[in-house]
Amino acid sequence: ESSPPVVFLGVARIRDQATLATYFDKGALNADKKGFEGALASILERSGSAYPGWRERAECRECDGVLHALADAQAMFVVVAGLRDAQYPDRVALQLLRDLADKVKGSQGDEAISEAKPGSLSAPLRKLMREVLKSYSDPSAHDKTTEVREKVDQLKGIMQDNVKRILETHVTMEALDNSSNSMSTQANRFLRQSVDLRRQIQYRNMKIKLIASSCAAAVVMYVGTMFIEF
């Protein structure tokens, strides 16, 4: 019987880099155990800046494999999976880690994970990790599901981008509408001011004409008076 591609699963707390639980396949060699434990220590050294969904990987030099790691949604702990098969699809490995993280949190809860002593969760999680390891021993059984899920996620992303664009366009149209209303108001104000100014000019011209007419009449009367006296 060939060895399964997934030979190691583990859970470690990020805060103090404590390894809370480990599980090796029964066919794992001493080289596998030593190599993956060393790879886990290497990943934990780099986990200080881990954030929700943080991903990392480390080579297993002793066993010619790779260790994948994923931080949970609160960046409280990381789950790891040791793969002996270099051809194991990355997206299936990621799905394995997500499933493992969800099941660990659902099984133990935040408080237990936060307060557990190193190694104390190996026994409570042994059955759970054994089932996950067995379930993902055949990546083809999960590859199609994972592919469909990724396409759904991509479609969601596209839809969210489209909604964002529509909202931005709506905001732009509102801004243009407001700008148009403002320009219309300013134009109406300018027209009113122009009419008022024209009326003022007409009134001033009328006053000037009246004054000029009065002056002319006064001159005529004055000249007429001189002729009469003469």
Task: Explain what the structure shows.
- One of its GO terms (cellular component) is membrane.
- It comes from Zooxanthella nutricula.
- Residues 144-204 form the V-SNARE coiled-coil homology domain.
- This is V-SNARE coiled-coil homology domain-containing protein.
- Keywords: Coiled coil, Protein transport, Transport.
- The chain is α+β, with helices and mostly antiparallel strands and 230 residues long.
- It has a domain at 6-138: Beta-Lactamase (2-Layer Sandwich), CATH 3.30.450.50.
- It contains 4 helices and 5 strands.
- The chain has helices spanning 30-45, 90-115, 122-135, 140-229, and strands at 6-13, 19-24, 55-60, 65-71, 77-83.
- A 5-stranded antiparallel beta sheet has the order 2-1-5-4-3, with helices on both faces.
- A hairpin with a 5-residue loop joins strand 4 (65-71) and strand 5 (77-83).
- Helix 2 runs antiparallel to helix 3 (122-135).
- The chain is rod-shaped and about 145 Å long.
- The N and C termini lie far apart (151 Å).
Structure keywords:
five-stranded antiparallel sheet, alpha+beta, V-SNARE coiled-coil homology domain-containing protein, V_SNARE_CC, about 230 residues, single chain, coiled coil, Beta-Lactamase
